[in-house]
Amino acid sequence: MPDKPDFHAPLYEVKANLFKGLAHPIRIRLLELLAEAPSVSVTDLIAGTGQEASNISQHLGVLRRHHLVVAERRGLQVFYSLAYPQVAELLTVARSFLTQVLATTQKNLELSMAPGPSAPEPAARRAPEAQPKDARPEGARR
After folding, report:
1. Is 6 buried (19+), middle (13-18) or exposed (0-12) by CB count in 10 A?
2. Crossing angle of helices 53-65/11-22, nearest 10°?
3. DSSP label of 87
4. 86, 81, 27, 88: which is closest to 57 by C-alpha?
5. Cys bridge to 39: 9, 10, 35, 79, which one at CB 3.0-4.6 A?
6. Could you tell me if 54 and 42 are in contact, meaning their C-beta atoms sit under 8 angstroms apart?
7. pTM for the full model?
């Protein structure tokens, strides 16, 4: 996404670019950390993610270009905050959605693995004592 919003781009393109800005686990973690406080120093963001400073700097640059965060220099430190409170709301909605999807998936998996009525086992897989007896006379069997 360019530094300035493209007011002529269709809304779906703008939305897609927003999600491109979100499309990395470290960026999501950075946004989660920023949602917890009004502003957070880069030092604290590095500590909160366990990533190298250069890696965090690159991800913060992507978030700035996508208008998700803003930076403010205070002396020798740089502090970041969410550009809009709706970013925190978006993260909350995404967490709720994913929790529901995972719960549904787990429920479906458990149901698919639960014992229940099923088709009879093929004869070749039955134990010998469970095999049907051939009722034909001894001489008629092949």
Report:
1. exposed
2. 170
3. H
4. 27
5. 79
6. no
7. 0.71
